[in-house]
Design brief:
By secondary structure, the protein is mainly β. The protein has no helices and 34 strands. It is 0% helix and 41% strand.
Length: 328
């Protein structure tokens, strides 16, 4: 991540009397274990939008929007947070629901927190990543829309960094500046039933152990799903299962040489510009995948991979269809 933006409450529009216990005059801040419901849009916030200030609270945006001014906050002190739409720095058990966040540096940021839920938010047109989990575990991101984020900073829809045991489910991630989902040094997360499209670098790039990627739908964009290793952290025991990838410009699903014991099972890849599935790690197991009408091979696997059987490939650009696994 970039240097931490400043923790500063932004001026906000008028809110109802029912919110007084949870709001500060200089901004919108949950001060105590009191649930908060928003009754007006917050527009043109020059710095942070809403800051969570307590554990076990629910922030209901009530289908209103939290809107930045679209300009980077100047003079942000080092090691503080600035220009964040929704900021939770260290508070557990928080739920944020039903609204939109746009035109900040980052949309929603959860730092060092557990058991939070972000549900049904539309996060768009932020300069950087739409939703970020940083050093945060056992959180849920469900049913959100992250679109048109990161255009200025080449970032994506959702990012997990050093974050473990999280659920990312049924989110729509489209037209972001980089990826749909980026995961660095993050273990045992479940990325399920998300829809991704037209992200220029692809759907998912992931580093970590024991992550499960299942039933995601990735259409167009740079690539599909890449299991990789970019730091000294591990990259073992990941599962890529029942995903559908169509029209990726690069490989549909790929595994770099270093990750160990990846399972690629029952995926369908159609119309990728390169290989349908490209595996460079010999400890990878491939079983019951379908790869059709891809630009190069259906499945390009290095010698020694584990052939679990049932793989199918047809109509791919390379007449061999598959290497080092049997394809029907």
């Amino acid at each position: 991540m970039q240097a931490k933006p400043r923790l500063h409450a932004a001026p906000a529009t008028v809110v109802s009397l029912a919110l007084i216990l949870g709001l500060a005059v200089a901004g919108v801040v949950a001060l105590s274990a009191t649930d908060v419901t928003l009754h007006h849009n917050l527009v043109n916030c020059p710095n942070n939008g809403i800051i969570i200030g307590a554990d076990d609270v629910t922030l209901d945006l009530n289908y209103h929007r939290v809107d930045g001014d679209g300009t980077e906050f100047a003079g942000c002190p080092e090691n503080e947070f600035c220009d964040i739409g929704l900021l939770n720095d260290g508070h557990d058990g928080v739920t944020a629901v039903h609204g939109s966040v746009r035109q900040f540096a980052f949309g929603a940021l959860v730092v060092g927190a557990r058991h939070n839920r972000v549900i049904d938010l539309t996060v768009s047109r932020n300069a950087g990543t739409g939703i970020i989990l940083f050093k945060s575990s056992r959180n849920s991101l469900i049913g959100n829309s992250a679109r048109d984020n990161g255009i200025q900073l080449d970032q994506g829809g959702i990012s997990l960094n050093r974050s473990h045991h999280n659920l990312v489910k049924r989110n729509a991630l489209r037209r972001n500046g980089d990826l749909g989902v980026f995961m660095e040094t993050s273990d045992h997360n479940h990325i399920r039933k998300n829809r991704m499209g037209r992200n220029p670098e692809g759907g998912i790039i992931a580093e970590g152990d024991g992550n499960v990627f299942s039933r995601n739908r990735i259409v167009s964009g740079g690539g599909g799903i890449l299991i990789t290793k970019v730091t000294a952290h591990g990259a073992a025991g990941n599962v890529v299962r029942r995903n559908y990838v169509r029209g990726a410009r690069a490989d549909g699903i790929s595994v770099d040489p270093v990750p160990k014991r990846t399972l690629i099972s029952r995926n369908r890849i159609v119309g990728a510009g390169a290989d349908g599935i490209d595996v460079e790690s010999r400890s990878t197991k491939l079983t019951r995948n379908q790869a059709r009408r891809n630009g190069d091979l259906g499945i390009e696997a290095v010698r020694g991979v584990i052939d679990g059987g049932g793989n199918r490939a047809s109509g791919n650009g390379d007449p061999r269809q598959c290497t080092h696994v049997v394809c029907r």
